[in-house]
């Protein structure tokens, strides 16, 4: 029997080939996913983490970046509490697409969604097309947190997920107009296997009214 305090819905979004599936894999399995294929529709992973003394289960939806899956992936945005918005530091094209992804996240998930911008493939610094400074300015202007990550080496991957979870918890605790979208407070959880957890009583709180 395991005890989980909260369940957060997370999204990983961004253009195709930026490394979303590899980031998720690195976070869940702590290793690099070799021969990663394009995601078809949506994939799913979850991990329990400890954030400021609270046990939080992150339920993470890894969406396909290819345009042809856009209508499918959009239907998964609803009610997400947090998102990793990913571009590839060696591809300006993926950086230029960020505004579109951001608009989708804020309109389809929630205006309060906590988003971290991840400049992935940090290990390929020699092929860099987007500077750290430029991206950090973009992040500041759009109220995003920002990290450069590498799904290959694992650098900053765990930090990206944990920073987002920590910010959501802080917002909940400070009660700053946070509506609690995508957050479920788990009253009692029974785990049958490490991967299958049934929440017996789960209550969705609207933290905006506390
Ligand atoms: N060098 C390097 N390569 C990476 C990194 N992350 C991913 N890759 C490579 O980039 C390619 C795309 O990775 P994926 O994780 O499949 O990309 P994705 O964003 O999930 O792509 P879609 O599912 O099509 O949206 C693969 O060949 C990975 O091996 C990284 O941090 N560094």
UniProtKB/TrEMBL annotation:
Q: Which SUPFAM superfamilies match?
A: P-loop containing nucleoside triphosphate hydrolases (SSF52540)
Q: Which GO terms describe its molecular function?
A: G protein activity; GTP binding; metal ion binding
Compartments where found:
Cell membrane; Early endosome membrane
What is the membrane topology listed in the Swiss-Prot or TrEMBL record? Lipid-anchor
Q: Which GO terms describe its biological process?
A: protein transport; Rab protein signal transduction
Q: Which cellular component terms (GO) are annotated to the entry?
A: early endosome membrane; plasma membrane
Instruction: Give the principal location in a single coarse category.
Output: membrane
The catalysed reaction is: GTP + H2O = GDP + phosphate + H(+)
Q: Which InterPro entries match?
A: P-loop_NTPase, Rab4, Rab_GTPases_membrane_traffic, Small_GTP-bd, Small_GTPase
Would the keyword Nucleotide-binding be found if you checked this record's keyword annotation? yes
What's this protein's family per the entry? Belongs to the small GTPase superfamily. Rab family.
Give the protein name, as stated in the record. Ras-related protein Rab-4
């Amino acid at each position: 029997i395991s005890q989980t305090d909260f369940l957060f819905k997370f999204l990983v979004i961004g253009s195709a080939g930026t490394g979303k599936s590899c980031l998720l894999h690195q976070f869940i399995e702590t290793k690099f996913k070799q021969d990663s294929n394009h995601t078809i529709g949506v994939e799913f992973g979850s991990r329990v983490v400890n954030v400021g003394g609270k046990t939080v289960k992150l339920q993470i939806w890894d969406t396909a970046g290819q345009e042809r899956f856009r209508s499918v992936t959009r239907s998964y945005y609803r009610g997400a509490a947090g998102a990793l918005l990913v571009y590839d530091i060696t591809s300006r094209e993926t950086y230029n697409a960020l505004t579109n992804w951001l608009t989708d996240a804020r309109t389809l998930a929630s205006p309060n969604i906590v988003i971290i911008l991840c400049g992935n493939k940090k290990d390929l610094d020699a092929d860099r097309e987007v500077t750290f400074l430029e991206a950090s300015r973009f992040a500041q202007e759009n109220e995003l947190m920002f990290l450069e990550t590498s799904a290959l080496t694992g650098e900053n991957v765990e930090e990206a997920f944990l920073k987002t979870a920590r910010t959501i918890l802080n917002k909940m605790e400070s009660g700053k107009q946070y509506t609690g979208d995508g957050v479920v407070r788990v009253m009692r959880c029974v785990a049958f296997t490490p991967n299958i957890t049934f929440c017996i009583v789960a209550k969705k709180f609207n933290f905006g009214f506390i």
